[in-house]
Design goal:
Layout: H1 2-6, E1 11-15, E2 20-24, E3 26-30, E4 35-39, H2 44-52, E5 56-62, E6 65-71, E7 75-79, E8 82-88, E9 94-96, E10 104-105, E11 113-120, E12 123-134, E13 138-142, E14 155-163, E15 167-182, E16 188-197, H3 201-223
Antiparallel strand pairs: 1-2, 1-5, 3-4, 4-8, 5-6, 6-9, 7-8, 10-12, 11-12, 11-14, 12-13, 13-16, 14-15, 15-16
Function: Acts as a flagellar brake, regulating swimming and swarming in a bis-(3'-5') cyclic diguanylic acid (c-di-GMP)-dependent manner. Binds 1 c-di-GMP dimer per subunit. Increasing levels of c-di-GMP lead to decreased motility.
GO molecular function: cyclic-di-GMP binding
Subunit structure: Monomer. Interacts with the flagellar basal bodies.
Length: about 230
């Protein structure tokens, strides 16, 4: 908990089974009173729903490792003359480390586009390519025209990705791998694996929220919940 606080990491705070997600951060870990103090959510109604929730789940990243915990009793408080929330220090936490970031496929029915600016001699061109999947570490994109320089290490700055219901994020992508594909219709396509470079905490948080949104939608479809 202290590591999350000292690193100023943003944390996802979820209620109602993950249907509502708020972004917060740890303000203080009080050993004497066995409490954790966090930023309150924007708006009185949102904070009221959090306080009344039977369980509140939290998820954040520390050194690129997912940290998960929950609380059954959130209370209102004040911290340095501003509204805050507090709960008891969790008795257990999940520290989930993977060799790679968790990747999830993006929707095929409504593809997410990545806008990239290509420069060649005295000419620049803006292109929009479809995402295949996304993780907190990067994305895979399809380059059906094969116009992207696929050399390992090539960087593209000021790329823009519009995440539905989350918003537009601005990222730098570095090409890490490429693969030419032959589709069922016989046409050729190229899949590029790109790594995010120097992500800010706010952009990383937006990507986390979108991945969680996709995961909830996928789980709902699998269980038949609409």
């Amino acid at each position: 908990m202290r590591g999350l606080k000292e690193a100023n990491q943003l944390i996802s705070m979820m209620i109602n089974g993950g249907s509502e997600v708020f972004i917060t951060s740890i303000l203080e870990v009080d050993d004497a009173n066995n409490t954790v103090i966090i930023d309150s959510a924007p708006g009185q109604l949102a904070n009221q729903r959090i306080v009344e929730a039977p369980r509140v789940s939290f998820e954040g990243l520390l050194d690129r490792i997912s940290i998960q915990f929950s609380s059954t009793g959130i209370q209102r408080t004040d911290f340095e003359n501003r509204p805050a929330l507090q709960f008891g220090i969790p008795t257990s936490m999940i520290r989930l480390q993977r060799r790679e970031y968790y990747r999830i496929n993006t929707p095929l029915s409504n593809p997410i586009r990545c806008q990239m600016t290509l420069s060649e001699e005295n000419r620049t061109e803006t292109v929009k390519l479809s995402l295949v999947d996304i993780s907190c570490g990067g994305v895979a994109i399809l380059d059906d025209r094969k116009i992207i320089d696929c050399a390992i290490g090539t960087e593209y700055k000021n790329c823009k990705i519009d995440l539905p219901t989350i918003g537009l994020i601005d990222v730098t992508l570095q090409v890490r791998n490429s693969q030419d594909l032959i589709l069922l219709n016989g046409k050729s396509n190229r899949r590029l694996g790109c790594q995010f470079m120097d992500l800010s905490n706010s952009v990383l948080s937006s990507i986390q929220r979108y991945i969680m949104k996709l995961e909830r939608e996928r789980n709902a479809k699998m269980t038949g919940i609409r």
